[in-house]
Amino acid sequence: MKEQISQNFELIFVVIIIFVIMASYYYYLYREYTKKQEALTKSKIIPQCPDYWKSIGNNKCQNIKNIGRCNLGSINDMDFSDKLYAEDINKCKWSKFCEASWEGIDHLCV
Questions:
Q1: Which residues are listed as membrane-spanning (predicted)?
Q2: Whether residue 30 is found in the same domain as residue 54
Q3: Is residue 104 scored above 90 in pLDDT?
Q4: Which of 36, 62, 83, 98 fits 54 for a cystine, CB–CB 3.0-4.6 Å?
């Protein structure tokens, strides 16, 4: 009887050790995954200008391909240094209104 209890205790001990090792391994994998995801979100650099526009410095952009519906005839420059465009949400609203895609910006508003 004592021998059977001893064997059961050994089996339970081995199962607990295996469980702790597996839990530690999965926790390590989860922690590495979250670190990578955090690094990816931090490393995303939002472009200064909408897609396919040319940056002409100081938050000024030039629509060289006449993209969208906010073309002003021969004047295709847009100044995003105005305090109106200080927040990305306002850039998003402008992007949606003018139908000019802007990576990292145009998904902020619906």
A1: 12-30
A2: no
A3: no
A4: 62
**Residue 23 lies in domain:** 1-44
pLDDT tens per residue, range 27-73: 999 999 999 988 877 667 888 999 999 999 899 999 988 888 887 66
User: 48: which 2 tokens?
Assistant: 């200064």
> Can you give the pLDDT at residue 73?
62
Q: Judge if 66 and 38 occupy the same domain.
A: no
Number of domains forming the structure of the chain: 2
Same domain, 26 and 79: no
Q: Tell me if 51 sits within 8 A of 63, measured CB to CB.
A: no
- Are 52 and 104 in a shared domain? yes
